[in-house]
Amino acid sequence: MSAGLSEMIQSAGPRYRTATEYVEATLREAILSGAIAPGTPLRQEELAASFKVSRMPIREALRQLEAQALVDFEPHRGAVVVQITLLDAMDNYAIRAALEPQALRLSIPNLTDEDFEIAEDLLAEIDQEQDPGRMGELNRRFHMTLYAQAGLPRLIALTEQHLATADRYLRFHLAAVGDMGQDEHRAILAASRVRDEASAIEALAHHHNRASEAMKAYFATRSAAVP
Ligand code: NI
Asked: What is the pLDDT of residues 107-163, one digit of tens each?
């Protein structure tokens, strides 16, 4: 077990309601921060001993991390921390750039004052947040608040799934872009409020493009597979 993970386990404990939540959030943070390297096997027995919990919450947490594309289950090896590559990141941006404008366009006419308030509050929270894992979650909630009224459940579910997958690049995103794109978030929200669909979609496209270009430049200065 890496020294980084042991430290994170010790400091993370009391913040969580359930053992699964505790294990999932701590492992997620450890993977996203690089404290556990890509390709590292995550052995359930070892994790149960480190976290001082039974194997059930470990298994459940690993399933949740698999759903977030942070962990793969490989035959004979079990759960393994995924490799993060530029190709993966670009694939994810391409999917998001296809889905999110659709969801936003369909959602805008149905958004309520309450939705706008929630979105506004989430932006204020992002401004105050230091923790990258938590920033990713708030970013996802902000975007999904604006897409949620699209009225097409499968489009919404697919959009949310790929937005969640984007969290695995967050560490690189923050290193590459330097911020969460709060100016762009505010532009998307302002245009949505006045039901200006075209401007909202343009601001969203700018948000995606700036991030993917910065990420490309960032990966170009490193090897193709990021440690
Ligand atoms: Ni965003």
From this structure: 999 999 999 999 999 999 999 998 777 888 899 999 999 999 999 999 999 999 999
- Side chain identity at residue 191, one-letter code: A
Of the candidates 53, 81, 109, which is a domain's last residue? Answer: 81
The single-letter DSSP state of residue 82 is P
Indicate the pTM of the whole model.
0.72
The 10s digit of each residue's pLDDT in 75-101 is: 888 999 987 788 888 999 999 999 999
CA–CA distance, 151 with 148 (Å, rounded to integer): 7
Does 99 lie in the same domain as 32? no
The residue assigned the tokens 């993370």 is: 12
Residue 95 belongs to domain spanning: 86-225
- Centre of ligand 1 to C-alpha 186, Å, is 10
Distance CA 174, CA 51 (A): 29
Q: Name the nearest CA neighbour of 166 among 207, 200, 223, 130.
A: 207
Q: Using the 3D structure, point to which of 52, 81, 110 is the last residue of a domain.
A: 81
- For residue 78, the cross-strand partners are 74
- Ligand 1 centroid – CA 23 distance (Å): 26
**Interval between CA 77 and ligand 1 midpoint (Å):** 35
Distance 13 CA to ligand 1 centre (A): 29
